[in-house]
């Protein structure tokens, strides 16, 4: 009997034990790295289920699990670890993963590769760095963050365009813009100007600075950025990669339990960063040529009158009164989730911005959906779709009598600009030929309304490791409806007050498709692995541009073509098609030597029939010395790399044909005469001979790199040297008029870029230290030279600038040099002064300097202690010419601050024609007008070699402890300053400026440009 009782008790204990083990209970613990430092954000997943959690800021976690279940701990850069949940308390240490430390980067065609295997340089920028910039334009957000990447803004107004130049300009007359790719599909980043068919001038010099279309991308949707800088990296994109490639990877869904929600909101306050200083002592007027006494006169732009005090009249701070604080409200919300079979993310972003220039603004609404679905073990599909609605109200600028800055900066202090119209609504101003800036912003609005859709879909079939087939298709289409109004009494567009309404409709469609086969060749080898990629690409681009204009409005305030007396229309259509075959082989030899070779053959409708196609090869190699040799323990990683590649820039469309056009004649100052004339139409050969021998420009590039890591990977140092030759550059050459044509567009020039890039990163303290300090430095230098121009020419005008100064490619000189009048000098470099006391202008024009900087750099310091992080980026530029035409004109008109010192005479430094030191005095007006100003002086005087140090951004952030709130995953508040400090020798607006915008080839031109901005931004981010 006792034996039976014992057996029953034993059975009961076993049953109770089994029952208790089967029950879920809370398992808690802490996850740390090898140094014992807690790791926040570690994923803790119950194996075989969707139940998961993450560690908090202190590395702690809590999850319900039964003793028989297994917990999987995973973290980026660490080896995953599995632990049985047979204890209610678990401590886990994750080891660093050497493979993950090398990181994975996105390369051409969206191919992901380990960074250590690359034989060329790729710069990576994280979403956090994009966020810290505070920029709404994802192109401008890259400024100062990567070696060899120069960003040129066009002002701080809402929607202002931004241009990027990677490793120098590679073309003379083509676009210098890199190719923009989002999730493997190229998109349009055009900056197009509204231009009437009868406009004989460069419309970029005046009018509106339109946006580059990358503005339509929501920065909050960006996960990371890869910049393919050299031909070896970008060769698989062929004729579109001549200026490099920027790959944006967007945020995707995440595997986790339930629905995740991220919300962020921010407010930015914008102020004018820098303006040329003005005098506010002397009133409107001029100096009497007989008595030499200042006289008060109205209806003149000159401020050479008497002092306001002597006249007893008030002086107004017109510039200070005009600008206001700009406000930018940004809100983003995203919903995400997923499991082992599918992931998804849906987001909405909204931006509402009011500009520092009154009545200017930007509104952008973005909807984006992205998802992946695993249909089976062999089939996977996915895609993304984005809709963006962007509206923009822009300001007139530049060489434009309706331009805001032209009238504002020239304004006389004795006139209050706020009195901008009379009782009938007509423009009133201190000078009748200029539009009052208040009248411009209130009565002459220029608007842009963009609707854009882009996205892609893919289907992948992977039957084995040696074969994966992917079909991908993408579309990018947008319409841009622009409207420009010049009210009755406006002087804009040479109207003389008759009024105008101009409409511009631009539609752009791009279709893209890839079919790619890839895989790992099934070799029976332990020391050799070969990956292959091969495919077909098809692309189509269509653009229609319709311009219509009505002049001489019958009824004030009715801005419709039916209200106009004089009507004009013009339109342009462009269709381009291309197809390509490509292939790539990647050799992994003993995980030490990595060799890659690729080739792309491309056919394009812009090539001449005599050319038909082009081939773009590339090859690169990377050798991991630390895997081959037993180096000292302090050296963790050393890689030598070499890459060679060829990429292209396609010819302009329809240049293979001799086309007809409506003729016009102009004297260079007026709009001239054109057809239809007197109700009679006429057509003539355009003057350019069609060329069936056109082929793409070619950029051939070599690069050599060294990548190293020391001190347990805390110190990284990378250096890259490159040499690029741009051949078969397309330029317009003159023809004898007896041929019936005046010019021919052909491959006829060559230039060279060579440079050096350095990147340094250093984590000052070990990870176990609660205080962290990280330093990241980049520095780059590029030298450029035009080495050959065919046809016996020594120079080619890159783009029409002002009559006084040109922008040229000159054989033996750097590309993009300013050419204009220089001062005559003796053998010792002294200016030669004439008998009138003024410097003598040389007989021939000369090189006034090049707009490209001599070197650029960026230095980011990041400090963190527990939940507090401070990060700041210093941006450096040394050299690079800027033509300050604004200051030259302000000197001429007596408006500049320096010209207030006029109660004395001046002696210009130099020597007289007999070689003796100059001692001839001249009046202050002659000194500022004819020497420093543009009233007869040499353009040399207005060109400045610019240097700057700017605090590009500084951010203070705090991560809240949310573990007490079960519904919160994260919460962060941050304060960011953008461009808060600028130290420069430039006496104008912010020298990071471009009058002609991103759609122009001219850089460094300042002629009444809109000002730059500095911003203070407050942000809150919350995750649920």
From TrEMBL:
Residue ranges of domain TonB-dependent receptor-like beta-barrel in the record: 415-980
Transmembrane segments: none
Subcellular location field: Cell outer membrane
InterPro entries: Beta-barrel_TonB (IPR000531), Beta-barrel_TonB_sf (IPR036942), CarboxyPept-like_regulatory (IPR008969), Plug_dom (IPR012910), Plug_dom_sf (IPR037066), TonB-dep_OMP_SusC/RagA (IPR023996), TonB-dep_OMP_SusC/RagA_CS (IPR023997), TonB-dep_rcpt-like (IPR039426)
Domain (TonB-dependent receptor plug) ranges: 117-245
Membrane topology: Multi-pass membrane protein
GO CC, any one term: cell outer membrane
Signal sequence coordinates: 1-22
UniProt keyword annotations, A-Z: Cell outer membrane, Membrane, Signal, TonB box, Transmembrane, Transmembrane beta strand, Transport
Family, similarity comment: Belongs to the TonB-dependent receptor family.
Protein name from the UniProt record: TonB-denpendent receptor
Native organism: Flavobacterium seoulense
């Amino acid at each position: 009997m006792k034996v039976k009782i014992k057996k029953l008790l034993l059975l009961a204990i076993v049953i109770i034990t089994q029952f208790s083990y089967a029950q879920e209970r809370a398992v808690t613990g802490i996850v740390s790295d090898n140094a014992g430092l807690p790791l926040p954000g570690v994923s803790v997943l119950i194996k075989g289920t969707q139940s998961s959690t993450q560690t908090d800021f202190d590395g702690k976690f809590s999850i319900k699990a039964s003793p028989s279940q297994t917990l999987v701990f995973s973290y980026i850069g660490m080896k995953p670890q599995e632990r049985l949940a047979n204890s209610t308390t678990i401590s886990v240490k994750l080891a660093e993963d050497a493979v993950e430390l090398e990181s994975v980067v996105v390369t051409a065609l969206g191919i992901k590769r380990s960074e250590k295997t690359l034989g060329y340089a790729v710069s990576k920028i994280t979403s956090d760095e994009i966020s810290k910039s505070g920029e709404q334009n994802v192109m401008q957000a890259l400024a100062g963050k990567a070696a060899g990447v120069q960003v040129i803004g066009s002002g701080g107004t809402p929607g202002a365009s931004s241009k990027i130049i990677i490793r120098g300009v590679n073309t003379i007359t083509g676009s210098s813009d890199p190719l923009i790719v989002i999730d493997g599909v190229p998109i349009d980043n055009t900056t197009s100007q509204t231009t009437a068919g009868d406009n004989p001038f460069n419309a970029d010099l005046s009018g509106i600075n339109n946006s580059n279309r990358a503005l339509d991308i929501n920065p909050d949707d960006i996960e990371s950025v890869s910049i393919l800088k050299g031909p070896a990296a970008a060769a698989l994109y062929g004729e579109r990669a001549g200026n490099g490639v920027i790959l944006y990877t967007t945020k995707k869904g995440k595997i986790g339990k339930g629905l995740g929600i991220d919300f962020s909101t921010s407010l930015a306050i914008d102020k004018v960063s820098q303006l040329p200083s003005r005098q506010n002592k002397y009133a409107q007027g001029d100096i009497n040529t007989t008595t030499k006494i200042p006289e008060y006169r109205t209806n003149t732009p000159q401020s050479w009158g008497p002092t306001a005090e002597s006249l007893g009249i008030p002086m107004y701070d017109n510039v200070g009164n005009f600008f206001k604080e700009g406000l930018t409200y940004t809100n983003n919300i995203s919903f995400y989730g997923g499991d082992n079979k599918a992931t998804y993310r849906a987001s909405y972003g909204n931006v509402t911005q009011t500009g520092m220039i009154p009545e200017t603004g930007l509104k952008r609404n973005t909807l984006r959906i992205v998802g992946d679905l695993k249909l089976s073990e062999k089939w996977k599909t996915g895609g993304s779709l984005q809709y963006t609605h962007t509206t923009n109200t822009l300001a007139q600028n530049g060489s434009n009598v309706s331009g805001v800055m032209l009238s504002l900066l020239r304004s006389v202090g004795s006139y209050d600009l706020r009195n901008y119209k009379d009782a009938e609504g007509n423009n009133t101003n201190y000078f009748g030929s200029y539009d009052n800036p208040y009248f411009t912003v209130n009565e002459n609005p220029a608007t842009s309304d963009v609707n854009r859709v882009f996205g892609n879909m893919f289907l992948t079939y992977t039957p084995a490791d040696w074969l994966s087939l992917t079909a991908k298709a993408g579309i990018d289409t947008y319409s841009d409806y622009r409207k420009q109004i010049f009210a009755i009494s406006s002087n804009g567009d040479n109207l003389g007050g008759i009024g105008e309404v101009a409409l511009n409709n631009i539609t752009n469609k791009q279709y893209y498709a890839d079919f790619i086969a890839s895989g790992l060749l099934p070799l029976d080898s332990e020391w050799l692995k070969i990956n292959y990629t091969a495919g077909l690409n098809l692309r189509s681009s269509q653009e229609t541009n319709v311009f219509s204009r009505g002049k001489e409005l019958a009824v004030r305030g009715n801005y419709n073509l039916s209200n106009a007396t004089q009507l004009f229309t013009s339109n342009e259509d462009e269709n381009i098609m291309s197809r390509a075959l490509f292939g790539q082989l990647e050799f992994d030899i003993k995980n030490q030597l990595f060799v890659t070779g690729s080739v792309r053959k491309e056919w394009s409708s812009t090539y001449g029939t005599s050319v038909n196609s082009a081939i773009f090869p590339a090859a690169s190699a990377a050798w991991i010395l630390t895997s081959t040799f037993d180096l000292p323990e302090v050296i963790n990683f050393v890689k030598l790399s070499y890459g060679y590649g060829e990429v292209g820039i396609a010819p302009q469309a329809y240049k293979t044909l001799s086309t007809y056009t409506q003729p016009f004649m102009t004297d260079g100052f007026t709009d001239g005469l054109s057809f239809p004339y007197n109700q009679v139409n006429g057509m003539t050969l355009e003057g350019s001979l069609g060329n069936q021998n056109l082929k793409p420009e070619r950029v051939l590039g070599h690069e050599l790199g060294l990548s190293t890591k020391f001190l347990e990977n805390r110190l990284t140092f990378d250096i890259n040297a490159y040499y690029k030759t741009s051949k078969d550059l397309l330029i317009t050459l003159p023809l004898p008029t007896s041929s019936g044509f005046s010019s021919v567009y052909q491959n006829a020039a060559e230039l060279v870029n060579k440079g050096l890039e350095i990147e340094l990163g250093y984590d000052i303290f070990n990870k176990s230290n609660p205080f962290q300090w990280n330093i990241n430095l980049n520095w780059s230098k590029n030298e450029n030279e035009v080495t050959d121009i065919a046809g016996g020419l020594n120079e080619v005008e890159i783009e029409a600038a002002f009559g006084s100064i040109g922008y040229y490619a000159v054989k033996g000189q750097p590309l993009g040099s300013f050419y204009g009048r220089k001062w005559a000098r003796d053998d010792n470099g002294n200016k030669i002064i004439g008998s009138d006391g003024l410097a003598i202008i040389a007989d021939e024009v000369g090189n006034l300097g090049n707009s490209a900087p001599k070197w650029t750099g960026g230095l980011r310091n990041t400090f963190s202690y527990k939940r507090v992080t401070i990060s700041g980026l210093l941006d450096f530029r040394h050299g690079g010419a800027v033509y300050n035409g604004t200051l030259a004109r302000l000197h001429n008109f007596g408006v500049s601050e320096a010209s207030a010192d006029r109660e004395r005479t001046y002696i210009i430094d130099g020597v007289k024609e007999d070689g003796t030191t100059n001692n001839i005095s001249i009046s202050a007006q002659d000194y500022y007008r004819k020497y420093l100003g543009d009233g007869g002086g040499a353009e040399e005087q207005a060109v400045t070699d610019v240097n700057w140090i700017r605090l590009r951004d500084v951010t203070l952030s705090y991560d809240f402890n949310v573990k007490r709130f079960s519904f919160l995953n994260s919460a962060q508040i941050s304060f960011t300053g953008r461009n808060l400090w600028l130290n420069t020798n430039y006496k104008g607006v912010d020298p990071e400026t471009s009058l002609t915008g991103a759609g122009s080839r001219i850089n460094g031109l300042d002629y009444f440009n809109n000002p730059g901005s500095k911003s203070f931004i407050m942000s809150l981010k919350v995750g649920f």
